[in-house]
Amino acid sequence: MNHSYYVKTLFSLLFFSSTLWSKPSHLPNKVVIPTNNWSSQRVLSNVVGQLIENLDVPVEYVNISADRQWGALKRGVIHFQIEVWEPSMGQEFNKLVANGDIIDLGTHEAKVIEDWWYPKYVEDLCPELPQWQALKKCRALFKGSKTTDKGIYFGGPWNYGDADIIRALGLEFSIERLPDDSALWEELTRAIKQKRPILMLNWSPNWTDHYIDGEFVNFPLYTEQCEKIPEWGLNKKLVKDCGNRRGGWLKKAATPDLKQRFPCVYNLIKNISFTNRMITDAASLAVVEKLSDQAAAIEWSKKYAKNIKKWSLLECPQ
C-alpha cells in the first residue's frame, strides 16, 4: 500500500514537472519591447508601448544592443523591433526573414541614410568637401592628437564596415568608437562650440536634420557588387570601396509567433508607418528638448494623434 502511494506520488511529480517545463519561461503574458542606444528608437518604442497598454496588454521594456536583439527576437525573448535600418541591419534582417527566424511586418514610409557626416562649417577649411577625396587632402584637420598623423572618425557601437571603407579607399583615418548616440552628440557639441572640424557617424532622419547644418560625405555610390566583388570599384583587390546605401528602407520586425500570441499587437505594428519627419521629431524631443523617453513619447503622440487614431483601427481575432 505504501509502495503504491509512492509510485502515484512520483508519477504526479513527473507530470507536474513536465507541464512546467513544457511552458517556455521566456514567453510571459506581456509584450516585451527592446530599447536600443539611439534616441528615436527609444522614444518611438515607448509610443508603441503606450498604444499596446491601451489595448490592455501589459508591456515590459528591455535595454538591448542592436546586435543582441536578433537572437532575442528569434527566441521570443523580445517581441518586435519598430526601427530596423537597412544600412546597418539589412543583411542580418534579410537572412533571418529568409530562414523563418523572424517575420517582416512591413516598411515605413521613411527613407534613411547612415554614413560619415560633418557640420557645414568644416567646408570653410576644406572646400572640396563633401567629395570623399577631400578627406585625403584635409586629413590633418581631423587629427585627434599630436602623436598621430591619422585623422579621427567618430563612430558608434554599430558596425557599418567603416574600417573596410578606410582600407579600400586608402584613407589615413582611425576610428574612435563611442558607446551610444549621447556620446556622439556630446562630441559634436564640443566641436561646434570650438568651431573644430569633426568627422563622425550620423544618420537621417535625425534631430540634426533640423537643428544643425551638415553634410554626408559623398563616397562612391553604394551597390551590392561593392560589398561582394573586389574588381567592381576603384580598389580592384578589396570590397567596400563605396559609402553606405542611400535612401535605404526602414522596416519592422517581429518574433515568429507574435500574431498567434498577440493578434491585436501584430495588427497594430503592421499598421504603423513612420515618416522622416516623425522620426526627426522623436529624436529632437529627447536630444534637443531633453525629455525622458516616456515624456517624449507622450508629446510625440499628441502631435501625431490623427496618425495614431488611424493606426489603431484594429481587427483583433480571438
Helix coverage percent: 40-55%
Overall pLDDT metric: 90
Order of helices and strands: HEHEHEHEEHEHEHEHEHEHHHHH
**Overall outline:** globular
Can you tell me the CATH class of the largest domain? Alpha Beta
SSE inventory with pairings:
Layout: H1 2-21, E1 31-35, H2 39-54, E2 59-63, H3 69-75, E3 80-85, H4 86-98, E4 103-107, E5 113-119, H5 134-137, E6 151-155, H6 162-168, E7 173-177, H7 181-194, E8 200-204, H8 208-211, E9 214-216, H9 224-228, E10 250-254, H10 258-261, H11 263-271, H12 276-287, H13 293-303, H14 305-311
Parallel strand pairs: 1-2, 6-7
Antiparallel strand pairs: 3-10, 4-10, 5-8, 5-9
Helix pairs in contact: 2-12, 2-13, 12-13
Labels describing this entry:
3-stranded antiparallel β-sheet; 2 domains; D-Maltodextrin-Binding Protein, domain 2; alpha/beta; 14 helices; 318 residues
Question: If you had to describe this structure to a student in words, what would you say it looks like?
Answer:
The protein is of the alpha/beta class. The chain has two domains: 29-111 and 248-311, D-Maltodextrin-Binding Protein, domain 2 (3-Layer(aba) Sandwich); 113-232, 3-Layer(aba) Sandwich (D-Maltodextrin-Binding Protein, domain 2), CATH 3.40.190.100. It has 14 helices and ten strands. The strands form four sheets. It has a three-stranded antiparallel β-sheet with strand order 3-10-4, with helices on both faces. Strands 8-5-9 form a three-stranded antiparallel β-sheet, covered by helices on one side. Helix 2 links the parallel strand 1 and strand 2 (59-63). The longest helix is centred in the first third of the chain and has 20 residues, at 2-21. It is globular. The N and C termini lie far apart (48 Å). The model is unreliable at 1-27 (pLDDT under 50).
